[in-house]
Specification:
Layout: H1 2-20, E1 38-55, E2 62-81, E3 86-98, E4 101-104, E5 116-135, E6 138-155, E7 160-178, E8 183-197, H2 199-204, E9 212-226
Antiparallel strand pairs: 1-2, 1-9, 2-3, 3-5, 4-5, 5-6, 6-7, 7-8, 8-9
Family: Belongs to the Omp25/RopB family.
Domain Outer membrane protein beta-barrel: 7-227
Subcellular location: Cell outer membrane
Length: 227
Amino acid sequence: MKAYLLALVAAASAASAQAADPMIAPAPPMPAAYDWTGAYFGAQGGYGWVAGEVPDDLFTGTKTESADGGAAAAFGGYYYQFPNDFVVGVNGEFGYNWNDNSYAIVSPYPILNGQSVTFGTEWRASVEGSVGYAFNRILVFASGGWTATRLEGSFSLTGKSYDEVMNGWTLGAGVDYAITDNVFARLKASYSDYGSTDIITQATGMAGLPDSKLSQASLMLGIGFKF
């Protein structure tokens, strides 16, 4: 009889404890962190500023002239994300610039004074390596590598047009944001240095004139697709 009463007391105590501490539903599982590993491609558009250090009077001194305008490009590449959220990658771009400028020559030589030189860039290409850090769906990165562009223009005195493909280096920084698992937005700023060229000598046919230097900055906004 005593054992029976003890069993009843134990059962009542268990029921009372269960009523006092109702079962709590388990928390939903946390969503998995975004993984940037994979190949991607996309398109971007924005604005570019070209700076040309050009001969002032064709024979002595230099001055800086600028040309700016719209820019558009296609891009593609590959990211690899490490377990510690560092991301490395390679990125290629090919696009077109709509910029040109014309400046008048100021020279003590009457035949040159007032003549005009035009210049601008057309297509641009680059291949860059990148390193970044992923904050889940936000990837902050820096990049750098090789770049090239086609410089074109003309000289009014001779009526000659000229063009040259210039090679150099480029540095960039940007942010990618994953809108969905397969679509991301990109904002990127870059600076490119294309070195120097004897393009003025080519345009005038006169040897020994100062070289011109060319650089470019751009700000681009794009959309990419990762797979």
